[in-house]
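Same chain as my last thread, 1343 residues:
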Amino acid sequence: MAQEGSQGGLFPHGDPFEVPEGLGAGEKRKRPEEDGASGEGNAFLDLCGRCGCVVVVEDDEGKDAQCTLSRDARDFVGALELELATAPRLRRDFVRGLETYAETDEGLRLLLRPVEQGDSLAHNLLNVYCLQSTVSALLLERVPTLDASDDAQKSTALSIVNQFRWLDVSSEDSALLDKFLEVIGIVDPALQDAMIAFLPEVTTTDDQADRVGAYLLDRLEEDSAFCASVIETTPSLCISGDVRDRVCLKVLDHLRAVEASEVGKVARFVLENASAATAAEVVGSLREGLSLVDARDPRRRIPDRTGKGKGKKSERTPEQDLVSAVRSALRCKPEAIGHYLNFLKKLGAGRGRGRAAGSGSAEGTPSCCTLDVWVLVVLLSFGGDRAAQARQAFQRKASRAGVGLYCVLFECFPEARHRQDCLGELVAHLGGGCPQETSNALGCLARIAREMLDALRPFASYLAALLDHVDAFEGAQARELFWVIGEVLEPDQGEPPGSGSQGSRRGSRLEDEVHITIRKQMSSDSPRYFRTGVVGSLALLARRERGIESCHNPSRRTKEVCVSLGRIFRECSRNPENLGFFFEEVAEILARGGLCHRRVLECLNELAAVDFEQTFIGEFESGRLAAEDTRGGEPWFNLDGENAEVALRIFPLAVSGDKEEQLQLAKLPAQISLLQVLENKQSGNLEAINALLGCPLHLFPEQALDECAAEARQDLAKVLVHAVNWCREILRVFTEGVDLTSAEAVRRERETLRKVVRRAGNTYVLEACLAILRQRAADRRGRFQPKSPGGAGTQTSVATAATTASTAGGDASSIEDLGSELDKAAKTFNTPEPRPFKQSHFALLFLALPGPRAEVGDGDSLLACLVYLLRHLRRECVVKGGAFATAEDVVGFRPTEGGAETLPLALGALQDLFLERLGQEPPTEATQATQDSTVMGAATRLAEDHFNAPALGLELISDVVCNTILKCDGPEVLRRFAEGFLGGGEGAAGPVQGFLDAMAARYDIGTTFDQKYKSAEVLVTAYKKLEGWSAGREGEGEGEGENESAARDLGVDLEELKRQAERRVGELLTGPDPSSLSKRRPGLPARAKVVDSLVGSYALLCEQPLDKLEEIASSFERYARHALDKAPKPGDSPFPLLDRQTIPSFYSCLFRWLCSLFRAELAASVEDRSRLDGVHRCACVFTKLVLLPKRAEKGSVLLKPIVQGAHGFLESLSAFDRQGLHQHEAVTQILKELQKGVKHLQFICSDCKTQKSTFLASKVPALKRSVERFNWKCLLWQHNKDGTKVQMGSLKHRDARGNAILSQLELSEFDFNRSAIGVEEDVEKDSQKSLLIDQSLPLSFEI
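reply #2:
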């Protein structure tokens, strides 16, 4: 074995490779010294021997000489450090001896060889701090002298480089890095990649990392061959964001130059290193520079059907490697997912014919490419929120791109088998069960039928498989499928049917299958299947009708079509609901240009008109209904006066004992819609049905609303719903197709439009009656008794209830939520939902333009009509699936096709009209509606109230504007909206700035709080949107990185807009004129929403949020203490908007504001300890807010906000421990400030036990645990700390076994290394210390 002692030296026992004569093969001997490599006077060998380096031993064969250590490597390094650190002469001699020893190849080899199973002697010497720079220079200088073409010398060179891996110590000076960079430039190119990969091992500071990053950039400039080395090295470097971005973009420039096998690595690198500033460029360059040509799914193993690849491992294609790399990058860096999805939001799928995937769309925006599809598929496999976002993007973008892809494939591959495969994939998508997938596949099939019908017809029999899925289709999907089938079956023009044409022969099987399917569905009792059969029957009839003029016997075919229509009509007449569906389907086909033959139109008109007249029309003479048809009802809303000859029978059908007669009302709106289309097709006008616009409605007596019993309300509600549906459809019928922007067109239709305006007011009344009826039914006593406007006494009249709930003296929530009230009424009374609004309904808003308004000249009725439409317009801009679901719907809506004026222009004209009206008529405090004693009278007054209409109209316009701004997905849409709103008068500042100036001016001239609040809300919404775009982040979910200069491009000064919005919101929050508060008293939820909006906006806008928070909190504390004890006088309140009911809401808003500021100050304190002053100020505000219930006599109303807000505040305090802030001296003062507040929180937790509130009962335990943990943490922070101690509160909890939690014990009784005194040894693992470091605890603080 090895020997130690005074003999010393690295090889004191001779050459281990030579076995002298007379010695056995396994014996050891000394190695002779040669060339001065060792011997007396070699300080390197002597000192190594003294510190633990022993002789080299030989194995049984006398080979593999190596040195060994007699002690641990760390002890050896430490011993050398002690010897050399204080002896400069010895260190100099040691280095000389090392240089002499390493000059020989044998000596260098033994230095680099691992010592037993550990590190080499050279690696150990590099861990000696005082030797590191010298030894590294000695080793690195040998690398250029080695020949990389010789495998042995190349191995030695790589071994030298490997010595620098995982060094235990590293010098902060740049000597080692300088030597490394110097050597890299002169070594053989075959070694440069290996040395570049080791640069992170010799980089210790951020400055050195940035220097390495700059060096890598220079190498990339010289040669793209270094791209792989840079990709491998950069992630291990702690370089700055700017340098990393430059490296990332430079690697991206070499994307097209790298080898195919390296493309995946490049893609992964740039995605993982992309920042918010470079994300758009990175994603765009990847999509442009990469193209997937292999359509195989890389996640799926491709089977070897030929069997030739048995026993061989299949090679992965570059495309598969690429997709795998992208998947890995997205999984490792979730931020890259957000960058990619944000980029996809801006893309539009190409829809043009022959446009390949990845090419530009018609609008110039790049469409989805194949890489996008693979990325979305990868995200879908992740699950969770990312999968949901990917699913939305896939449905919105990639699915539409897939439609174009299938069309391109069908067109570009003319061979039958290829087209058959393409259609087979479409059929698979049609049967996938996903509605969106089905719709896209049908759209693709319809596009092929429109553009390549001749190419599709040979596959007519193959399309029969589509009929297997038709039962699962929606109405529109079934309609599109049958249209495609009809196109495929249609014979050539001019060829009589049955002539044996090629198209007819090929489609014969499909035609037979269609007829069989339709017969089965038409004979089904299921409404769904029956209606699908109706769709198919009408589609085939429309196909036959198109060939009437070209067939050999037109009259015969016309008769066949009319007979078939009559047969379908009779089949549908068995169920009125099915008949209504028949009417809607026929109207849809007529709108698309089908069934337009003259005799067919006459047949349809006869069927629909005769049925309508027999079912719904009753005689009306001399202002009275026919005696045999009254049934206790009376006429409502007779607009024709003495000229009325008919009445619409709604009430008689609704109360009929015959169930079939009751169901007749379900088809009423669809039937009038069909009559409109037929009249327009036949005569070009609606004179034949003009009497229906002004005819009275046969409804129940008006007094029935007040006198009906609870069980009769459902019948009344059904009648009202059918009347509302009729009126809504009439509004659409008589306004559709009229150019309401033209004064001349309005003049021609003046009388009709006046009736339309009045009918809109009637609809307003009917909906108000329905809402009041629901409110009455909701009252458990059966009577609705709200407080009077003056606040004293009660009113038992339902009419007065309607007034106080809907007019100037009542509850604004009823006005605001009129649409919701109708939905609630449908659920309460189990009635059909009101017929939805369509965009064409809102064409009447264009009557607000000066020219059309002057021609109609209907005064208060027009104003009430416009307000009614604005109410529903606001709802349609908010609800999911509404008529105006996007900002483009609002910006692009025109009353007629091809018109120039858009809806924003009508909104701007409405605003001017309302402002003009308010200026002409000063506000009055009461209306005549309060004197009505019937529901009908109150609802009528509500619709005719001309004072309330302008003020409410301005509020509604502001809501529509805010919702539209929030939905704008780009600056261009916002610019178009502002331009339309101003009517082209944008001024020098641009349309958006001009629009904002108009909103600011409206605020200044506003006389009521409601007007000012709505105007300020528009300014705040615009600022949030523009600021989100300009900051390059997602503001309201729509901000994009490319919009960094959005505000500047739109001509808006963001800072000035922020100052204007802040000043106005501050005025509304702290200083509104009490006289400006309107007489309408909103409900508590509405007032709380206003308070929350104002406080949140003010916190966002103010320049010095902490100063403002302290100021507002101090004022609020004084006000709340006084207001909760006794009602404040009107002029004494610093917050005129508040009262006892809204104080808790304001209090909760202050807590949320405080928590957000506190987190921001804590985050800033981590970098700058001077910012702890801001944390201290937040602590003062926290204590002030927490102690408020203690100082106020009726402070129990504030318990709920405290339980919510204090928990979030204490959660934020975890940053003290995570970032080491608790060691700072200023933290003691912060804890002192928190002392009173935290102690009072414990009292509040105990007091909440006596409160009978389920909310408090569920929230208090979490707050108690947070307080307990924070108190214990404070004790730990203060332990063994000199100076003042801070006692944060008492600790009283026990664990599940009944043992006292160790935080109860005094610190003098607690041993942090073991356990607590008096605690059993087996409970030691449950000590408080182990509980504190238990990561599974659901608490926020960790030791």
